[in-house]
Amino acid sequence: MQITVADHVRHVLLNDMVILLDLRSGVYAALQPPAARMWDEALRNVAPASPDERDLQEAFVAEMMEAGLFVEARPPECGAGREAGTPARRPTTASAIMTLLRIDRLLRRDGFASIYSMIQHLDVEVRPATAATLARVVGTFIRAENILWWRRRNEDCLPRSLALYWFCRSAGLDVRHVIGVCANPFQAHAWVSHDGSLVLDTPARTMAYVPIAEV
Q1: For the CA atoms of 12, 119, 79, 64, what is the dihedral angle to 10 degrees?
Q2: CA-CA distance, 161 to 112, in Å (whole number)?
């Protein structure tokens, strides 16, 4: 049986460990080197060298499947062509304020998993953007933050980056939302990028993090 990682799980190899992010709960976990090796070998369908190692790997795979981290791999389905997304909205200070408040409310009420699922399915037509267009959209977002004096923006990168992604995407900008992790000590950081450049963030804050999830 060929196995693969479940759709709701993101993983990355970091310092001989495998860092996991369960998008259903927003919970991180770390597999230490022995378990990380079995994770890698199971996904690559590497045959164990001895019967004892085979038993260990089979037990490990069974445990990962019971936890919902591994699933049986299935052939890709051929689907119909993707329909065009909804038209982009004109970015205004009022809509930026509503986005900030909406993200804050949804995170408090429904948690990370719900809002992350929503941004993965945010289907808006994107178009090429000039530096001036990006600056105008980001400037509007900053004005909204200043009006709200958003109490969480300096406390947690996640709500701010989610709101920034949603607002930019709704305005038709082809932005990416990235969650990165680092070890020793374990930390996570979330940011937004456009055409390979950071939006309202700096390399000094992101360079230590290895991306684990991206939309």
Answers
A1: 40
A2: 12
d(CA 213, CA 215): 7
Burial of 179 (0-12, 13-18, 19+ CB in 10 A): buried
**Beta-sheet pairing, 17-22 with 27-31:** antiparallel
What residues pair up with 166 in beta bridges, in sequence order? none
SS3 call for 180: strand
**190 φ, ψ to 5°?**
-125, 140
Q: What is the pLDDT of residues 37-67, one digit of tens each?
A: 999 999 999 988 889 999 999 999 999 999 9
pLDDT, tens digit (0-9, with 9 covering 90-100), for 111-142: 898 899 999 888 889 888 899 999 999 999 99
Report CA Rg, the chain. 20
Q: What is the pTM of this model?
A: 0.88
